[in-house]
Design brief:
Blueprint: H1 3-17, H2 37-45, H3 49-61, H4 66-69, H5 81-86, H6 95-196, H7 216-239, H8 245-281, H9 285-295, H10 302-310, H11 317-327, H12 337-365, H13 369-392, H14 408-433, H15 440-447, H16 449-452, H17 455-489, H18 505-525, H19 529-571, H20 580-630, H21 636-677, H22 698-717, H23 720-742, H24 749-766, H25 772-784, H26 795-798, H27 806-813, H28 824-835
Helix pairs in contact: 1-2, 6-8, 7-8, 8-9, 10-13, 11-13, 12-13, 12-14, 13-14, 13-15, 14-15, 14-17, 17-18, 17-19, 18-19, 18-20, 19-20, 19-21, 20-21, 20-22, 21-22, 21-23, 22-24, 23-25, 24-25
């Protein structure tokens, strides 16, 4: 309950509970608002409970001393029996009052509930009646709304019908008005047509309209309509002229009108063009725009556009001659591509700026500025630029090309590339300024079509010309060098190679640079992958031919040195029956031939090394620069790789032959050293009690020193499989040569030890070849050398672990000093027979 209500109720409850003569009265309004049952109950009993509590307190104070002794362990008091009997009043004296109060309250609450139930029933009944009435009203309203919608639909349909009728009437009225205007205009046109259909060439009797300068636009429009009508009628009548004589007469009449109209239109157009030119000189843009608008009725203004463009100062002859002087220079002088590039950049910038200024005027004057810009740019690309290119790009002859002193074919190609690149830039700039629907790129390409059609032939011819000139230059340098050192070099055998030109990696790099420049032009002149790939392949083939020819010729020249050295060796091969003086001279000549052979060997190894470097440069250039241009086209990359392999195979063949000659040269010198230095006593020293010599023989030392010195060039020049194959072949030849050499000597045990020392020295040297098969052969040689050291009776056990060398061992055993005295032939014969 609210506070005010609670207070009132409390007073009421106190008043009503103080005496039974005034029962408690509860009202329905007491239960409205924030009702609380606890508050209601409290207000009912709180008035009675305080008096009871006070009486209970007073009755317990007199018996307080009993609590100490009679307290129970659970805390409750135990009252003596006599005290209990002394209390005659009830423990809770207000019970009756509370029961009476509660009964009264319950009866009143029941009455209040009945009152509320009655009211709720009445309210439900009233609400039901109102709801039924409301539903009825809504149904009537819905019916009325439906009728209203139907009325609106009929009204809308009516309005639409009326509107359509009005529109039809308006269309008819508009059509009628248009027909009336057309009829009126037709009457006027017929009147004007009759004026033009007078005497041929008689324009004096025309209406004032056709001579009034203030009505030029209207006169031009009418004249164009008349001429169009007359020409159309003549065309129509011409089809059936043979079937109608009257029509022929009419046609002849209209022909007079057409002729007069044509004459008048020409005169009017010339008059307007003259006015346009005068306004153009005075820069009166408004007058120019007015004239251009009127002239647009004559052939859509084409004559005015062409007239305006044709009178631009940028197309004057003096201006074009100045273009030539700016780009090419004075007559008779040969310009450089860099100067031409600067000149073209300056000229094309000037042209672009001029066109941009003209565009501003054209936009302000002409009703169709895009068409005028198209004509202007077309005139630039068909008149001004071609006249300059015609003087700049003079196509040389492929049969008699210009000499390299004048730049050769390369000069023309560089000029073509510069002109093409700069003209493409001009086309892009003009397109940015505005050129209407003109195909600027196609028009620019057409300027160079005659040059691009056979461009690749000029590129190939230029590369061949450059190669030829470079070879002539190298030959001249070599000839000059030979003449300056020839008199000194001819006195020495080692100078055989001085007259031969060596391969130069710098020259091959220059070949590649030429090719790079040519490839850059290939990609400049075409953007189509197939065309680019075809041109790149053709240009790269030229490089392959050049490099292949150059290094092959270089290898062949190096081989010639080897051949000449071999000829010198053969020349000084003498028999055994010669005098000592002759033998000494021959030995000296042989030394010179050996020096020439060593020099030619080194020269060839240098040539091989430079050949490998050159091939590597070409391969790297192909991988880095050309592969990406060839891969987009199926088969182009593979075909170029195959061509590269084919081109290099010729050089590989020359290198292989030369390496074989190198081996021959080395082995010839080894055989000469062995023959000259090896003494019979080296392997059959006398048994004089002196300790045996464990040093290598002088011949072995000389051979190893020679091989170490000469093969240093091979170790540097060769690599990979080429080096392995060369050294393996040389090791096998050295093994075979030593075997044949030792077959000439007889060995005693101390000589066998000396031989074993030589074999060890040779084996240690060839171990640097990194050829396992060669190492194995020299190891077996060391084993076979034991046949000279062991006693005859031990020979049978010497080859038990290595039966593969038995055949060579038989030949070695025959070289023992005691072979005959110890009767080793018979003993070994029985041994080989039993073991086999």
């Amino acid at each position: 309950m609210k506070e005010g209500i609670d207070g009132t109720k409390t007073d009421r409850f106190l008043k009503s509970s103080s005496a039974d003569s005034h029962p408690l009265v509860l009202d329905i309004d007491d239960f409205k608002g924030g009702f609380s049952f606890d508050a209601l109950f409290g207000n009912l009993v709180n008035e009675l409970l305080p008096s009871f509590q006070e009486e209970e307190t007073d009755s317990l104070e007199g018996h307080g001393n009993i609590a100490g002794a009679d307290a129970l362990p659970n805390g409750n008091s135990r009252i003596p029996s006599d005290a209990g009997r002394g209390l005659s009043s009830p423990l809770f004296p207000e019970v009756d009052s509370l029961l009476s109060l509660f009964k009264n309250s319950c009866s009143q609450l029941v009455d209040i509930r009945k009152q509320i139930d009655g009211r709720l029933y009445d309210l439900k009944k009233e609400v039901g009646a109102q709801d039924s009435k409301h539903r009825k009203t809504l149904a009537e309203l819905e019916k009325g709304v439906d009728g209203l919608f139907d009325s609106f639909a009929r009204l809308d349909s009516r309005i639409s019908s009326v509107g359509q009728t009005a529109a039809k009437i308006g269309d008819h009225l508009q059509s009628a008005d248009a027909q009336r205007d057309t009829a009126s205009q037709t009457i006027e046109l017929i009147k004007y047509l009759m004026e033009f259909n007078g005497s041929p060439g008689d324009l004096m009797e025309l209406s004032a309209l056709f001579s009034d300068d203030s009505r030029v636009a209207e006169a031009a429009s009418i004249a164009q309509k008349l001429r169009s009508f007359a020409e159309e009628d003549i065309g129509r009548q011409g089809v059936g002229m043979q079937s109608a004589v009257g029509n022929a007469t009419a046609s002849r009449g209209l022909e007079v009108a057409v002729a007069n109209l044509q004459e008048y239109c020409n005169e009017l157009e010339n008059r307007l063009l003259a006015r346009f030119d005068a306004a153009s000189q005075r820069r009166e843009l408004s007058t120019m725009a007015e004239c251009a608008k009127i002239l647009s009725q004559f052939n859509r203004g084409t004559s005015a556009m062409q007239h305006y463009v044709g009178l631009r100062p940028m197309f004057d002859v003096e201006v074009m001659n100045a273009d030539t002087r700016l780009v090419i220079g004075d007559q008779g002088s040969q310009p450089s591509p860099s100067n031409v590039a600067r000149g073209l950049s300056s000229l094309y910038k000037e042209i672009t700026d001029t066109v941009r200024k003209e565009a501003a005027t054209i936009m302000a004057v002409f009703p169709s500025p895009n068409d005028v810009m198209s004509i202007l740019v077309q005139r630039v690309l068909e008149d001004r630029v071609p006249k300059l290119l015609e003087k700049l790009l003079v196509k040389p002859s492929l049969v008699n090309p210009p000499p390299m002193q004048e730049g050769g074919l390369l000069f023309y190609l560089r000029m073509l590339a510069v002109a093409y690149e700069k003209t493409q830039e001009l086309a892009r700039d003009l397109h940015g300024v505005g050129c209407g629907d003109l195909d600027v790129e196609g028009l620019t390409e057409s300027l160079f079509i005659e040059h691009k059609d056979i461009y690749i032939e000029y590129e190939q011819a230029s590369l061949r010309q450059l190669y030829k000139a470079k070879m002539e230059e190298l030959r001249a340098e070599n000839q000059q060098s030979s003449e300056s050192t020839g008199s000194i070099g001819r006195s020495k055998g080692a100078s055989i190679t001085s007259t031969h030109q060596q391969i130069s990696v710098t020259v091959v790099t220059e070949f590649v640079r030429w090719n790079e420049e040519a490839i850059s032009r290939c990609t400049l002149f075409s953007s189509q992958p197939a065309t680019v790939a075809a041109n790149v392949k053709a240009v790269f083939t030229c490089l392959l031919d050049q490099v292949s020819q150059y290094i092959t010729e270089g290898l062949e020249r190096a081989r010639d040195s080897l051949t000449e050295a071999a000829a010198l060796r053969e020349r000084f091969v003498l028999g055994t029956s010669v005098s000592r003086r002759v033998a000494a001279a021959a030995a000296s000549a042989a030394e010179a031939a050996a020096a020439a052979g060593e020099s030619s060997f080194r020269s060839f190894m240098v040539a091989v090394q430079r050949c490998g470097s050159s091939v590597a440069i070409v391969q790297q250039y192909f991988a880095n620069s050309l592969s990406r241009l060839l891969l987009p086209v199926d088969g182009a990359h593979a075909a170029s790789c195959e061509e590269m392999a084919t081109a290099m195979s010729t050089a590989e063949g020359a290198a292989y032959k030369g390496l074989q000659q190198c081996i021959e040269t080395v082995m010839a010198e080894v055989e000469r050293l062995l023959s000259a230095e090896q003494k019979a006593t080296d392997y059959r020293s006398p048994d004089d009690g002196i300790a045996p010599d464990h040093r290598p023989t002088n011949a072995c030392t000389r051979v190893v020193a020679y091989l170490s010195r000469v093969l240093e060039a091979a170790f540097t020049a060769l690599e990979g499989l080429n080096k392995q194959a060369f050294l393996s072949e040389l090791g096998n030849r050295l093994h075979k040569g030593l075997l044949n050499h030792w077959q000439k000597f007889t060995f005693n045990p101390s000589g066998g030890l000396r031989l074993k020392r030589d074999i060890t020295e040779y084996g240690e040297f060839v171990r640097s070849f990194n050829a396992p098969s060669v190492d194995e052969k020299f190891e077996l040689l060391g084993i076979m050398a034991n046949v000279f050291i062991v006693a005859p009776e031990s020979l049978s056990t010497l080859f038990e672990g290595t039966p593969s060398i038995r055949k060579d061992a038989q030949r070695f055993i025959q070289l023992r000093e005691d072979y005959k005295s110890a009767k080793l032939a018979a003993r070994l014969s029985s041994l080989w027979t039993s073991s086999s």
